[in-house]
Design goal:
alpha/beta, Aspartate Aminotransferase, domain 2, 2 domains, 7-stranded mixed sheet, 3-stranded antiparallel sheet, 12 strands, 34% helix
């Protein structure tokens, strides 16, 4: 590694460090720094570049769409956005989920998707059960994002403590602890957010008995179960969604990371019972679901859903 490959004191926030390795380009599974040294990207851009680097097919789609139509704002729809949403809705819900996904809210990141799901859950609980039913539950070792809502459901104290107080009513329960869950989950809870397989928290898998109990309690109290599939979804665990693998039956699913082949895009799968409550002004995004990212994501979706491709991930 030469000095050219490293930038010291970059004009970026210090949260990223005082020295950064600078990459120039990528090919397949490899990255190349400014000195030409090759690196095997074991992290896949933190689970983003699922199809690798230098994909001319995706680049061609992005370029063509940029020439055709690059942005229109959320006041209008575009063909790529509608096409992708239709594909997602048409896919089977994971496991034995009773959810009927009726709409897809597109955003820009996993944290934004989880933030959206939190808002939808609060709206649902308040509309259906009135004030005072706003508690949010997540679990130890969880990671759901760094914006204030998703951070409130992220367990790591190093991320949480500098920014307290977080959202009132947010609680972190022990992961896979059925007895604690049974005591805590009642009709005052708006939503439970959980990763089928915890990523940053250490690859802990949801226990099937715990998943079964969680499904039952959420249905009993009309609490929305949100499955954070930002990292586990879209083929990462050998199927479209990991929720079904562990036995979760979510009301909402959040997706992001590999969704658009490296471009920023996230999604919230919205059930009919939540979509029926949404009105203009409740939520929106300027860039989410733009025609360029959704055009690329539609192609990525098709690739990920090829039987031969999915079989290779198992």
């Amino acid at each position: 590694m030469t000095a050219d490959a490293i930038v010291k004191h970059p004009p970026l926030p210090k949260q990223y460090g005082e020295e950064l390795l600078v990459f120039d380009y990528g090919e397949g599974c490899y990255l190349f720094d400014r000195s030409g040294k090759r690196y095997l990207d074991m992290g896949s851009g933190i689970a983003v570049n699922a199809l690798g680097y230098g994909r001319s097919d995706l680049a061609d789609i992005a370029a063509a769409q940029m020439r055709k139509l690059i942005h229109v704002s959320n006041l209008f729809a575009t063909e790529p956005e509608l096409e992708l949403a239709g594909k997602i809705i048409a896919a089977a819900a994971p496991g034995g989920s009773q959810a009927s996904y009726e709409a897809v809210h597109f955003g820009n990141s996993g944290s934004e998707a989880n933030e959206t799901a939190i808002k939808y859950a609060r709206l649902y609980a308040k509309t259906r059960r009135g004030e005072g039913h706003h508690r949010l539950i997540a679990f130890s070792n969880s990671f759901h994002g760094r914006t204030m809502g998703s951070l409130s459901l992220t367990a790591n104290p190093a991320y949480r403590e500098p920014f307290t107080p977080l959202i009132p009513g947010s609680e972190i329960l022990p992961f896979n602890d059925i007895k604690t869950l049974e005591k805590a989950l009642d009709g005052t809870v708006a939503a439970v957010m959980i990763e089928p397989i915890q990523g940053e928290g250490g690859l802990h898998i949801v226990n099937r008995d715990f998943a079964r109990t969680l499904n039952t309690l959420c249905r009993r109290y009309d609490v929305l179960l949100i499955s954070d599939e930002v990292q586990t979804g879209l083929g990462r665990c050998g199927s479209l969604y990991a929720s079904g693998i562990v036995g979760l039956e979510p009301d909402m699913i959040t997706l992001a990371k590999p969704m658009a082949g490296g471009l920023p895009l996230s999604a919230v799968l919205v059930p009919a019972k939540v979509n029926a409550l949404l009105k203009p002004g409740h939520h929106a995004t300027t860039f989410g679901g733009g025609p360029v990212t959704t055009a690329v994501a539609s192609a990525v979706w098709d690739i990920l859903n090829e039987p031969a491709f999915m079989a290779e991930t198992r």
